[in-house]
Amino acid sequence: MMSSLPQQFDDAKTRLGSLKEDPGNETKLKIYALFKQATTGSVTTKRPGMMDFVGRAKWDAWNALGNMTQEEAQKAYIQLVDSLVGAEVSCMIGIYNVILLCQLICFLNYFYSFLAFYFYPFPSVGALSS
């Protein structure tokens, strides 16, 4: 059964907190803007002053969403978080596959050495002196 949109939104907030990699400033601004739009709606405050660079960047990102509904913002937020978590999981799967490949190569190297020794053992000392 599909959970409600507010529940999915809360789950996305939790999953966002579990990210291991920093998504970067541009993505963090999108996350912030979508979160504010989803929880409060459109911007109602004045734009921060010229010297508040971070505040202005956040306000501009939020204001750029215009009249997006809170429901649309929640859906976009969920999709963005899902894409970030999915990318991180894909990266971890890739690393896991590389580790498995290295283990396989080590095993095959060991197995090849065993077969080479078994079928082509070192010559005896007497055979070397003749």
UniProtKB/TrEMBL annotation:
Coiled coil: none annotated. The keyword Transmembrane applies. Keywords: Isomerase, Lipid-binding, Membrane, Transmembrane, Transmembrane helix. This is Enoyl-CoA delta isomerase 2, mitochondrial. GO terms for molecular function: fatty-acyl-CoA binding; isomerase activity. GO terms for biological process: fatty acid metabolic process. Belongs to the ACBP family. The gene is Eci2_1. The chain crosses the membrane at residues 98-120. InterPro entries: Acyl-CoA-binding_prot_CS, Acyl-CoA-binding_protein, Acyl-CoA-binding_sf, FERM/acyl-CoA-bd_prot_sf. Residues 5-90 form the ACB domain. It comes from the Eukaryota. Gene3D superfamilies: 1.20.80.10.
